[in-house]
Write a structure and sequence with these properties.
By secondary structure, this protein is an alpha+beta fold. It has helices at about 10-20, 45-80, 95-120, 250-265, 275-284, and strands at about 130-135, 140-145, 150-155, 175-180, 185-190, 195-200, 205-210, 215-220, 225-230, 240-250. The chain folds into 3 domains: about 1-40, no CATH class; about 45-120, Helix Hairpins; about 130-270, Cupredoxins -  blue copper proteins (Immunoglobulin-like). The two termini are about 40 Å apart. It binds copper (II) ion. Its cofactor is heme; Cu cation.
């Protein structure tokens, strides 16, 4: 179901409310969509687990909220001055006090166990390959140390450079290409200020600090093109340094590596042209 297909405003609002309550996401592509609710569809098992944990919490929260609201309405109706002119002098009830202490503890335990499990499983497992992402004001640089030190920059495509079908503000000139069903370790750092390498459909969001190396990972289980953005306010063009990842079949990746070695052969590794690039971007 896609909300952008609904034209009547009140029908749209109703559908929005119903879908919010049901926790249905309207997004299908691996990029943000107009009127999107919830997360982008998961492209990794980790994101699928994050999504189902979120849905579980939403149901739990809704049940608790409805229960408390029901209690309050009951008290207001049953014990207001008119309905109950002579109030009881009861000051405490041991049974109720035990219950309202123990039940919240049990609820917290039910939340804590899957939450911690999810957190611990985000530690990097044995990785099949490594890529390094470096945040610059305002673009990303990538290196493939396991594949002949391929290195390139990925700059956002300006509106007049977009090909049909390429999403605005999300497409880059060079995509990060990775093989499907492969555990990819991502080393994240920055060269100037703090950036953040975030890929919603992978369940990945990692701060990029100058002078530090952070680590995250993903294992994409579907081929396709996925979009993310820098998620740390990093300056005037913060919103113009998107991340575009192409997940391809393993053979296709091997072919890309050979081609990339030639294509990016002249890349000098360090961004000596940083000032030049920033100046060009600012003048746009
Ligand atoms: Cu940034």
């Amino acid at each position: 179901m896609r909300l952008n297909n609904i034209t009547n405003p009140s029908a749209k609002l109703l559908a929005f409310c119903v879908m919010s309550l049901m926790g249905i996401t309207s997004a299908r592509a691996a990029q943000p969509e107009p009127w999107q609710l919830g997360f982008q569809p998961a492209a990794t098992d980790m994101m699928a687990r994050i999504t189902s944990f979120n849905d579980f919490l939403l149901i739990l929260m809704t049940a608790i909220t409805v229960f408390v609201l029901g209690l309050m309405v009951y008290v207001m109706v049953r014990f207001n001055a008119k309905a109950n002119p002579v109030p009881s002098k009861t000051s405490h009830n041991t049974m109720i006090e035990v219950v309202w202490t123990v039940i919240p503890i049990l609820i917290l335990l039910v939340i804590a166990v899957p939450s911690f499990r999810l957190l611990y499983d985000q530690a990097t497992p044995e990785a099949d390959m490594t890529i390094k992402a470096t945040g610059y004001q305002w673009y990303w640089g990538y290196e493939y140390p396991d594949h002949g030190d391929i290195a390139f920059d990925a700059l956002m495509l300006e509106e007049d450079e977009l090909q049909p079908g390429q999403p605005r503000l999300l497409s880059t000139d060079n995509a990060v290409v990775v093989p499907v069903d492969t555990t990819v370790r991502v080393l994240v750092t920055a060269a100037d200020v703090i950036h953040n390498w975030a890929m919603p459909s992978f369940g990945v969001k990692m701060d990029a600090y100058p002078g530090r190396l952070n680590e995250t990972w993903f294992r994409a289980n579907k081929t396709g093109t996925y979009y993310g953005q820098c998620s740390e306010l990093c300056g005037i063009r913060h919103s113009f340094m998107p991340i575009m990842v192409k997940v391809v079949e393993k053979e296709e990746f091997a072919a890309w590596v050979e081609q990339a070695k030639v294509e990016f052969a002249s890349y000098d590794g360090a961004n000596t042209n940083l000032a030049e690039v920033s100046a060009t971007q600012l003048s746009k």
